[in-house]
Design a protein that fits this description.
6-stranded antiparallel sheet; 3-stranded antiparallel sheet; homodimer; Jelly Rolls; mainly beta
Chain lengths: 113, 113
């Protein structure tokens, strides 16, 4: 799939209030995540994965939490990186937010539905 | 560098009309590219690299050209992927555009300045 036209590809529901659209090659995956259930009182439970991750905040505001790092208030245009294996999570500060997450290698768990 | 706050990190000039900000880990790099010299009459010369690439169109409209694929008119919210070694390029259709490009492995040529 060389392109993903937003208006032509349906969302995949992750859970209530979170939908995604995925594009990938063999070792690189990018996931558009649209959140609609913010703001949150609590952060999501921290998690970790062996994949490296970068994220671009395309809409909204979040707090990004990463093991051994100070909490970061991020907004549209900001980016973060997650090293392999590091515990991390976010908290939404706005009703809606869009994150564009990239991973290497592929998050195969995202393709097994 | 776990985060890149847009307002705190200066652009790096790529050329007149194109500036970027880069975040990366060991095998994954994401590059925020802000174009301000569109629209273009011609596409940029096609190029290729061994790195896999994904791109998110954060602002503006482009035509995406990729070897062996039909030309694609893309706008905010759309994404494209470039397999390793494939010739590809873009043409800007709007004055301004923002692309968020991810690469694996690292584009070391982007870090050698």
């Amino acid at each position: 799939m060389p392109v993903l036209k937003f208006d032509e590809i349906p969302y995949e529901a992750v859970r209530k209030g979170l939908q995604r659209k995925i594009i990938h090659e063999k070792e690189l995956m990018t996931v558009l995540l649209d959140f609609t259930d913010g703001p949150w009182e609590e952060k999501e439970p921290p998690h970790h994965h062996p994949h490296e991750q970068t994220s671009y905040i395309a809409k909204g505001e979040i707090i990004f939490y990463c093991e051994d790092e100070p909490d970061q208030h991020l907004k549209e245009g900001d980016m973060f990186v997650v090293p392999s294996g590091k515990m991390h999570t976010i908290k939404l500060l706005t009703k809606e937010a869009r994150l564009v997450d990239s991973f290497t290698p592929l998050r195969r768990d995202f393709l097994e539905k």
